[in-house]
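Posting for a labmate who doesn't have an account.
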Amino acid sequence: MAISDTARKNHDELFPGRVSTLAVTDPELIEYFDNFAFDEVLQHSDLDLPLPGQATTTPETRAEHGLAVQKQIVGADAVDALYANAPDDEQHVQRLLSANCFGDHYTRGGLDLKTRELLTLAMLISLGGADPQVKGHVRGNLNVGNDRATMLAVITGLLPFVGYPRTLNALRALDEITL
């Protein structure tokens, strides 16, 4: 089996000049992995994710703007409950989540909220061990206008990189929320 032209083109576009050491030590593995990850799986997705961006908040406004976007994604009642239910000695984590995660990152330019939320879902799936957060961000994706088909395309695209266990966990979260 040889690496297909499509797989080679997509690999080179995503990782210019990168040659895996496995291409030397286990070329057969690289052939079927590259054909799977950079050709076969990509046939099931038409996602385009541009990555430019820049800050839109200041140190003085990040908490306020972050809390607003967090409530937009997660839901105001759910965010209020996170703050209300956190013990006093953990309140700082809620404030950091609003200011840093949402204020510093979600408010940046370059990506619209729908794309940023898809990327967050993809990262959480890839991390593993974040199943409650994956489920929460499936809901968040729906709240910002991403549909089941779009999330399924992202999950499918992650398969060769995160493996079947994390993919199946993500599918379970997707099904619990959207079916």
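Reply:
Got it, the structure tokens are right above this. The chain has three domains: 5-44, 52-111, 112-179.
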